[in-house]
Amino acid sequence: MSEPVLVVDRLDAFYGDFQALFGVSAELRAGEVLAVIGANGAGKSTLLKTIAGLMPTRADAVRFDGAPIGALAAHKVVARGIALVPEGRRLFPSLSVEENLLVGGQLRRPGAWSLARVYELFPVLAERRHTPATALSGGQQQMVAIGRALMSNPSLLLCDEISLGLAPTIVRDIYACVPRIVGEGTAMVMVEQDIGQALAAAKFVICLQEGRVALTGVAAQVSRADIAAAYFGV
Q1: The model scores a pTM over 0.85
Q2: Which of 155, 169, 181 is nearest to 30 (CA)?
Q3: Whole-Å CA distances, 162 to 80, 114, 140, 222, 223
Q4: Is there a contact between 61 and 70 (Cβ–Cβ < 8 Å)?
Q5: Among candidates 214, 176, 193, which has minimal Cα distance to 40?
Q6: 153-164, pLDDT tens digit by residue?
Q7: Of the candidates 192, 144, 138, 147, which has an alpha carbon nearest to the alpha carbon of residue 165?
Q8: Closest among 93, 115, 94, 96 to 104, alpha carbons compared
Q9: What distance in Å separates the CA atoms of residue 82 and residue 6, rounded to the nearest whole number?
Q10: What percent of the chain has pLDDT over 70?
Q11: How many helices (H) and strands (E) does the chain have?
Q12: Fewer CB atoms inside 10 A, N or C side of the chain?
């Protein structure tokens, strides 16, 4: 079995004096998808932010390709090969679709993803490449956010609530692209409220409850009763 690309080891995270995560552990190999589920305020987005370098933790709490990165700044984490699709998309409103995508490629990391490949993945973006990104529908904006992250050719893609506020048909279209993304060998951690979509797309799942891991397992083997118990702490 190959070595994990990501190891999260007893990770703690704080907002000032408030502790948001308590001893969270997980690991992921190339081409695998980990779903992170849990109620609002459980610490899901905090976990992604900490992996992405937006929140500090001890250096060896996050290891990527065998190297400790928990204490690295976000720009150094991106350069190592980790990209975040943030909740709310965070597109640049003054830039077109194509300009937003090109921002993601500024590091010029080698890899399979290019502007042409992103347009192949999301053909509607090619049609609207010169449109201001924030003039698109919510689903199309989410495609831009994912495409921008892929333009950095990450080995690990972190997706925070990619289905939030989107119509079910759009959510299905976006999730249909996940196999093509991980098929390139990219590992993915997805925070998701839509548990059905998350379990269908992921190999592994962890459920956070008040900052702690309440459940971990193979997605296909976790029952709804197990999830309900972990989700609500009963």
Answers
A1: yes
A2: 155
A3: 23, 21, 11, 22, 23
A4: yes
A5: 193
A6: 999 999 998 888
A7: 138
A8: 115
A9: 10
A10: 99
A11: 10, 10
A12: N
